[in-house]
## 1
Amino acid sequence: KAADVDNDGDMDLILGNRGDNSFYKADTNHVAKMFVNDFDNNGTVEQIFTRNINGKDVPVHLLRELRAQINTPLIKNITYSDYAKITIDELFPKAILDQSLVKICNTFQSLIVLNNKGHFSAKPLPASAQMSTINNITILDINKDGNLDLITTGNNYNYKPQYTRQDASYGDVFFGDGKGNFTWQSNQSTGFFVRGQANDMVLLNANKNAKYILVGLNNDFPQLFKINE
């Protein structure tokens, strides 16, 4: 979402992401990568995701998943114990990796990107925002102090069993200070509590004195919250 959260007259960005509380992590010293190529030359393009362990890029996929997609002698015959220790540089020839499209990710955190007259700087939202995915963001001044605040919802249950689902978000409220900083407010203090995978959220203006937050949940009834003036 875009809004002027630091009150300097230009639009900043609030970006939801998957957060830090998952199997698949990344930072500037341990980047995650996606390699894209036709690895077995069968006319089908495959994607291989890796994470960085001890400075080496290690595939995150199960061996049976790779075997279902890529038919090379090494993948076909490697043992599970050897695959557990192998890097992508050992799995494929250098020539194939050099020809691959490689996408690099150095963070999965949800971020604030501040715009200072066209110069952008990013910083993470508070730790409470990194406990699960952020799927939806609503921006408004909740506490009437003249500064924009955030309401977020998330979670993602659509993961393969080996990665576990992300379900640690119960909806969050963050008060802004007008300088691009946000402070988490407990669910008990706000009364905002959402259980489940929240796929959508909208702000409803019933009239100028009544605002509501409507949260759409996957395989469940929607939840409606009134914002007290």
## 2
Amino acid sequence: MDFSQLLLEERRRLCDANRSKTPTVARTKLLSKPKEPGVFLHQGQLNFWTKRSPIDIEVFSKDSIPGLYYIPDYITHNEEVAIVNRVYAVPVDNDRWVKLKHRRLQLWGGEVATSEDPKTLPEWLEQISESLVDATFFNKENKPNHVLINEYGKGDYILPHEDGPAYCPLVAILSTGAECRVKFERHRATNGIANNRFEGTEFINFQLERRSLLVFTREAYTSYLHSIDNVLEGTRISLTLRHQELEKGLEKEAHERQLKHV
């Protein structure tokens, strides 16, 4: 499952549904006078955020899958509260929120399908992005410029998926609010590879605790699908931070356009 394509199709479906319910006169009025951006777009940095020092991420590796790392208690309680407050500063009826069947989300940094027009991150997300560079998880060239904020209620989930070629193969996920279970399972494309040519277990699942950081790259990114479930109570807010590689995104779009004419 290509998550970026799934998200794009869901956005189109919601837009079509909204247009079909809106009278022509009202729709014309809305288009002629777009909404003013809310104050949440202009908020500054987080009130509580500690500058990070370099961290040896190998200390936190999950040995069963190369490139998979898990750091419990990566952020403090005050930092968690500050993040959640910024997420919910976006009004529930604002277009920034996208409601899916088993979760809802905010997307910052622009649509993957429109990579020729990237958007600037709000200051508070830029602050978190910079801290991942300070910790040496990312470097300056591939600093996260794209953030997906997911809200999961009790029983919500996301099916096994891959993040795809539009991103640098390195992901950091901050978890707040509630625990959940993450599962990594070997991608079907690797099923036929002999054991002596493929390092890593068939699958692994473990709890993502509040205030933890999950990082995955290398084989964990390219050879495994990942999924989220088992939100038993409360509301989980996760921040998925990635670097969108604009040139690769454009190449992918051009390739998909060519396929439509074959």
## 3
Amino acid sequence: MAPASCALCNVNRALILRPKDHSKLCKTCFISVFETEIHHTITTNALFQRGEKVAIGASGGKDSTVLASVLKTLNERYDYGLDLILLSIDEGIKGYRDDSLETVKRNAEQYGMELTILGYDELYGWTMDQVVEQVGKKGNCTYCGVFRRQALDRGAARLGVRHVVTGHNADDVAETVLMNLLRGDLPRLSRTTSIITSTPSASANPASNTNIKRSKPLKYAYEKEIVLYAHHKNLDYFSTECIYSPEAFRGSARALIKNLERVRPSAILDVVRSGEDMAKLVPGNDQACGGMCSSSIPAAEEEEGGCGSAQGRSTGGDMASVEARLRMNEAAADSNLETEITAKSVSGKQHPRHDSDTVSLASGNKPKKGFTPKKTSKQVMGQCKRCGYLSSQDICKACVLLEGLNKSRPKNKIEVGYEVQDISLNSVRDELEATTIGGE
């Protein structure tokens, strides 16, 4: 049987079965398609501005390495006019981060980019090895995730950078959507599914109005395709897994996503789009991300069908309208009035009234007074009173975690002093002679 030819050029031999749509491509066409899609995502969502200084969150792994390589290539090819630098965070994990940082240093030389490395010990006074020693291996990823996100923003503020890009891919976003659903944390979906977010006042000075913009250019790129791109481009990256990550809750969501992808390759993007649609139903979702969450999906992505695709999109605000109708029903119940409930058709027209559409509340079966339907809480983002970082609470999660760690750490060394007494037979005899026994 003759080898299959590339589905695009029809000249070269197909070497790659693309994970996203199972199309057969040659090496050259796959690299070109991958870079073109990233460029389309960047231009469609207007991620960059000419002359902007952008920090790439570099860990030495496949995602950040591919991101740095692609951005350098596209910046030169399409003349974005960007000043790209690398920003790395040293969590202080021996046998893992110290080795990956060596890869980042090599990448900085290969791509000709400035590199800045900040450590947890410098920012927080703790390394992750010390945190794990204190809290154990279960739950340590919570500390690392909170500290790392804040460390990137603080590092960018120190460097005078207003835009940080990260290597989060479609698999990562889909996993985060599932994790938020499993935890019942719908208000967080608006930030986790947005391709652009903003962190107000991420600098050390709470009085400043510094805005750190964060974006995910690889949001719609599959993890498998990122690995294929790195392989065929011969990129230098670090592939060892973190020694503390097997205990993370994300592993359960990742296993589910991989099983879904095996059955249906489009499941990853379907979950991402579903998360985007659900985020629109949460009241105040624009406020949750500093007003920068509204972003359009690339046209190439919208053409694909599936759950949560463009065919099923709504204009948003549906949950708010439902709550308004519930309040009207309560008011009608208190006044013994009738409330007519009608359903809207797909075309937006109302159905004709039927007897079954009218619910009489005058029959005496009124709901209990004081009953209030459960509402989805809004997340009003503000600033931490201690560090000035983005937080929906008065004290951000990083400060709360640090306070717990510092309370358990002894502040001073405990020194025990004692004097050695000379106990001899003569001293014992003298004490015995001086002792009087009553009754003699």
